[in-house]
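B., you asked whether I could sanity-check this one before it goes into the benchmark set. Here's the sequence:
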Amino acid sequence: MEITFGELKSKEVINTINGKRLGRICDMVISCHTCKVTGLVVPNDRRLFKAREDIFIPWRNIVKIGDDCILVRIYETRGGFLPDCDEQPNDNC
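And here's what the prediction gave me:
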């Protein structure tokens, strides 16, 4: 399956843990070392009067990319969202 970034951006992201809509993709993270997509970014607009912290979704946490939406699996905590284990990579390309 091949999909363009434009097609990805048009799909709603839904968390399978709680059924919440997270929004639409605003960015994609690609590793400079492996030339592979490491994750997707969704804006987090839930913080009033604070700086917005985007939600990083590791590629391994994407359950399904469907025709209308993208299903992901991330846990929500009081401080934000927690993927299964590690955080967004920072390999300073």
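One thing to flag: The longest helix spans residues 5-9. Otherwise nothing jumped out at me.
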